[in-house]
C-alpha cells in the first residue's frame, strides 16, 4: 500500500518543538520503508534546506509546496481572519495551508500519515485512509489560552479561536480513520472533548548527543523553550516572579535559551538579577554542558514536552511542574512540584550528590524510553496496528 506523509511545518531548521517531532518521525519511518513526503515550506525555507532534507531521508520522495497566500493578507488580521473563517480553519492553520499540496493529495491513493494539527486541513476531498498524529488537543489548549488571556480584546480573540479550533478539530477527527497522541493525558483530553480516545499513544523522542561531555558548574541553571509559545512565557514569568528570588539569594544564575524573545520579554527578564536571556542557539550542547539543573515551569501545554526530553538527553537534571513532566515515567532524573516556590524548594533541598545521581540517570531514561530507536519501534508497531503499514511489507534497510 502506498504511503503519503503530510507535514505543514518544514522540519529544518529544527528550532522548536514542531519541527523536532516532524523530523524524528520522518527519519524513523524512512529507516523502515519508502514513502512520499508532501511538506509545506516556511516563508524563509531555502533551496539548500530542501536539499538537506532529501539527504536526511534517503529513499523518500520529497515534494515541497509553498503556502497559499491570503488574498487580503496585506490588511493583517482584518484580511486573514475572514478568509480563514470562510475556509473553516483557525488562522494559524490557514497560514500553513497549500492549495497546490491539497490538489496533489486528491490524486493519491493508499494510506496517509498526517503529522501535526494543521495537517488535518487536507483530509476533505481525498481518497487516502488517514492516520492523524496529534501533539496537541486543540480544544483543550485553546480553552487554556482563553483562561490565560490578559485583557478584554485578548479574551475575545481567544474565545473566537477556541470555537474555530474546536470545530476544525471535530471535523478533521470525523475524517481520520485513526489518531495518535503523545501521552495518556492527551488521550483523556481527546476523549473528554470529542468522545474519542486515541488509538495509539506515541511519545516523542530525542537524540542523545554523540560525544556530549557535561561540565556542570555549581549554581548554574538553564531554561529551554520557544518564546513564541505563550504557555512557555507565562510559566517562565510566573516562576521568575514567585520562585526565582529564593534561588538567586544563594547564588544561582539562570540562562534562558530559545527562539523568538520579544522586546517586552527582554525588559521583563531584565528586572530579575542573575537571569540572562541568550535567545536562540544553533548548537545546544555548549550552553547545556555547564548547566547543573534545568527548570521547566509550565502550568499548561500538551503532551510530552520535547524541551524536557532534550534537557535529559544532555544529562541535565530537570525540576518541572506536572505539565512539564507530562508523559514521563517516575524517574530519579526528574523532580516535580506544582508551584514556583515548591520548584525552588525542590532544588534547594538537593545535595551535590543528589544532582550527580539525577544527571547520571537522565540520559539512561532517554535511552530506555525516548530514544530514536525506541521511537522507531513504537512508530512502526503503532502504524502496523492501525493499518497504515503492512506488517508483511518491507523489512528495515540494512544499517538502519
Automatic annotation (TrEMBL):
Protein name: Glycosyltransferase
Source organism of this protein record: Rugosimonospora acidiphila
Lineage: Bacteria, Bacillati, Actinomycetota, Actinomycetes, Micromonosporales
Amino acid at each position: 500500500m502506498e504511503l503519503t506523509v503530510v507535514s505543514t511545518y518544514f522540519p529544518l531548521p529544527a528550532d522548536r518543538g514542531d519541527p523536532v517531532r516532524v523530523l524524528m518521525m520522518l527519519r524513523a519511518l524512512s529507516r523502515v520503508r519508502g514513502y512520499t513526503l508532501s511538506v509545506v515550506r516556511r516563508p524563509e525555507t531555502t533551496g539548500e534546506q530542501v536539499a538537506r532534507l532529501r539527504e536526511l531521508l534517503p529513499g523518500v520522495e520529497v515534494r515541497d509546496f509553498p503556502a497559499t497566500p491570503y488574498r487580503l493578507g496585506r490588511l493583517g488580521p482584518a484580511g486573514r481572519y475572514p478568509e480563514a473563517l470562510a475556509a473553516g480553519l483557525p488562522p494559524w492553520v490557514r497560514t500553513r495551508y497549500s492549495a497546490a499540496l491539497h490538489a496533489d493529495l486528491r490524486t493519491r491513493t493508499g494510506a496517509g500519515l498526517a503529522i501535526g494539527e494543521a495537517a488535518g486541513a487536507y483530509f476533505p476531498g481525498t481518497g487516502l485512509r488517514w492516520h492523524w498524529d496529534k501533539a496537541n488537543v486543540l480544544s483543550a489548549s485553546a480553552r487554556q489560552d482563553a483562561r490565560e488571556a490578559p485583557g478584554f480584546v485578548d479574551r475575545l480573540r481567544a474565545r473566537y479561536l477556541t470555537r474555530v479550533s474546536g470545530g476544525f478539530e471535530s471535523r478533521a477527527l470525523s475524517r481520520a480513520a485513526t489518531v495518535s497522541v503523545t501521552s495518556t493525558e492527551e488521550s483523556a483530553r481527546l476523549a473528554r472533548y470529542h468522545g474519542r480516545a486515541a488509538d495509539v499513544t506515541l511519545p516523542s523522542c530525542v537524540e542523545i548527543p554523540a560525544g556530549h561531555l557535561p561540565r556542570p558548574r555549581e549554581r548554574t541553571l538553564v531554561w529551554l523553550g520557544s518564546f513564541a509559545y505563550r504557555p512557555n512565557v507565562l510559566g517562565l514569568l510566573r516562576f521568575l516572579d514567585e520562585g526565582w528570588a529564593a534561588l538567586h539569594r544563594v547564588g544561582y544564575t539562570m540562562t534562558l535559551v530559545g527562539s523568538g524573545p520579544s522586546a517586552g520579554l527582554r525588559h521583563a527578564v531584565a528586572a530579575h538579577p542573575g537571569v540572562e536571556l541568550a535567545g536562540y542557539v544553533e548548537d545546544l550542547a555548549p550552553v547545556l554542558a555547564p548547566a547543573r539543573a534545568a527548570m521547566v515551569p509550565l502550568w499548561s501545554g500538551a503532551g510530552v514536552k520535547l524541551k524536557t526530553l532534550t534537557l535529559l538527553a544532555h544529562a541535565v537534571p530537570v525540576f518541572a511542574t506536572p505539565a512539564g513532566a507530562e508523559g514521563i515515567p517516575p524517574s530519579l532524573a526528574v523532580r516535580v512540584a506544582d508551584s514556583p516556590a515548591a520548584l525552588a524548594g525542590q532544588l534547594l533541598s538537593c545535595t551535590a550528590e543528589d544532582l550527580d545521581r539525577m544527571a547520571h540517570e537522565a540520559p539512561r531514561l532517554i535511552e530506555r524510553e525516548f530514544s530514536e530507536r525506541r521511537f522507531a519501534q513504537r512508530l512502526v508497531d503503532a502504524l502496523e496496528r492501525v493499518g497504515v503499514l503492512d506488517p508483511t511489507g518491507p523489512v528495515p534497510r540494512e544499517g538502519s
